[in-house]
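Researcher: Good morning. I'm working through a list of sequences from a screen, and I'd like to move beyond sequence-only analysis. For each chain I'm collecting a predicted structure so we can compare shapes side by side. This is the next one on the list. No need for commentary yet; just the structure.
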Amino acid sequence: MRNILATTFLVTAFCAAGLADSKASLFEEAGAKYHAGEFKKAEALYEELSETRPTAAVHYNLGNASFRAGHKGRALVHYRRAQRLAPRDRDLLWNVGILKGTLVDRFERRGEAVELVAMNELVWAFTAGSAALAGVCLLAFLFPPLRPGTRPVAALLMLCLLGLSALLAFKWTNEKDPRAVVLDREVFARYGPSDRESKAFALHEGAEGRVLDRSRDWIYLGLADGKTGWVPETACEIV
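Model: Good morning. Structure tokens for this chain:
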């Protein structure tokens, strides 16, 4: 589903299927504005849609419109929101790669592989595995002659559940702190939550990190390269 030509074309690859008629009409209008090159108008329409129907399609296309309108930080925010709902979509991953290649601050995120699986998918898999194991155990209890045959199945299911438990734990650890993306062209991270504190380092639009703490109107960001610093909450958006 790769519909991007070089690095200058971003397309509305998701369809409006499943949206209510009025929302579908707004979705189509936004798409028409996008293809006409009216990216800011498309961005505004997709933004309106995202407030009432925050689907992967809407966030993906809002990210595209924001990117083409020159709002790279906002584009990354909506790409990340789309990734939560469609973590393995090829067009989405491709566009994220294009966007990241244009940023000033390029931090490689840890745990990106596990992000290809959504938390709800892991939960459903664990639930299904647990139900299957319970069914095998019940079958062995009700029909003793079948016990020898159910043992290897039960052992395999238990191994799968252990693996899923480890993935769930890692996923939770990776996502327990919300993520924030810098929207300002440039902002200085400081050693404390105040403009009077010394500057630690500069961050640029599109830089992202984990929100480790908050104090008044400041957030304490932890970056993938290990740096930490306080930045004004108004300079960022929580994903």
